[in-house]
Amino acid sequence: MPPARVSSLLCRMLAALLFALLPLGGFAQRDSGIIHGLWVWKTSSALAAPGSAETLRDFCRSEHINHVYLSFSVGASTRGAEDALLAHVIQVLHKGDVRAEALLSSNDADEAGKSREKLLNEVREVVKFNQTHPRNTFDGVHLDIEPQQRPENKGPGNLSFLSGLVQAYRLTRQLTEPAHLSIDADTQIKLLKGNLEQRRMLLTSLPRLTLMLYELSSPGDGETLEQKEAKLRSSSEKYMAMAYNGVSGPGLARLAIGLRTPDYDQELPRMLRTMEDTLRTNPHYLGWAWHSWNDRTEATADGPRAN
């Protein structure tokens, strides 16, 4: 065979091999490092209308959002239709270079037994979804486990649920990592107020956490935007320092911070930028997250609130 043909054949074989090694879901599955996330609840209804996925993608593009957390339900009688919708939404997001993560929620998955197994089965269903939709796969799992909402876990310093919560995180991670799924979890200020060992346990359970920094301000509180920004800067620095105070070593989670639409209305994008400008040089800072697509679309439909 002439050398030129050999060279051409080798090039084609190499290109085919490289293509085969790429994730089937597309180039959007690459993680950019800094996360700009967005929660989407009730995915099957919030994105059911024709063109909704494209509207979501365009919004992500305009607001520089690169991760979307899509609520994922298990056991629904309409599972087939919901899977088809999810596959379409994921395809649209991936084409827009936006990662898609399955959003799983629970108030009691910290408890061993039936409650925790329910969460683990949901993770297995996400893995199964990816196996049956190899070209439109979830890139990760985003957990919203909130045992602090139960009455027995209320009160300052009451972290009796933490060891069970961390165990749920670790067991979930054992399922996601072999499936090449990233994993993240929402966390609350209350958990950052734990002692050194409690915070170390939390920060070594997962590679990523998202702090829900809510209710610092409200549209009708009488504060100027500049005052709200100052409060956000101070609080974000305070809780970032609190989380890692005295905790060092390998394998610590990086921390993103979530803000929500009801606290800032139309000024939320400005507040997210303010927070990122404040924390961008912190090595533990992971990014920000916007709660939520549902709040944003409802606010748009209703018009801005009066201050």
Layout of helices and strands:
Elements (H helix, E strand, L loop, with lengths): L2 H19 L13 E6 L2 H4 L5 H12 L3 E5 L7 H17 L3 E8 L7 H19 L7 E6 L16 H15 L5 E6 L1 H4 L3 H8 L4 E5 L12 H20 L9 E7 H4 L3 H12 L5 E7 L1 H10 L5
Parallel strand pairs: 1-2, 1-8, 2-3, 3-4, 4-5, 5-6, 6-7, 7-8
Helix pairs in contact: 3-4, 5-6, 9-11
Q: Key terms for this structure?
A:
307 residues, alpha/beta, TIM Barrel, eight-stranded parallel beta barrel, 8 strands, globular, disordered C terminus
Write up this protein.
With 307 residues, this protein is an alpha/beta fold. The chain has one domain (36-302): Alpha-Beta Barrel (TIM Barrel), CATH 3.20.20. Helices cover 47% and strands 16% of the residues. It has twelve helices and eight strands. It has helices at 3-21, 43-46, 52-63, 79-95, 114-132, 162-176, 189-192, 196-203, 225-244, 261-264, 268-279, 293-302, and strands at residues 35-40, 67-71, 99-106, 140-145, 182-187, 208-212, 254-260, 285-291. The chain has an eight-stranded parallel β-barrel, surrounded by five helices. β3, α5 and β4 form a beta-alpha-beta unit. α9 packs across α11. The chain is globular and about 45 Å long.
Q: H/E series, N to C? A: HEHHEHEHEHEHHEHEHHEH
Category by helix and strand content: alpha/beta
Strand order of the largest sheet: 1-2-3-4-5-6-7-8
Provide the low-confidence segments as ranges: 13-32, 303-307
What is the mean pLDDT?
89
Number of helices: 12
Main pleated-sheet profile: 8 strands, parallel, barrel
What share of the residues does DSSP label as strand, in percent? 15-25%
Helix percentage: 40-55%
CATH topology: TIM Barrel
Distance between the termini: 78 Å
CATH class: Alpha Beta
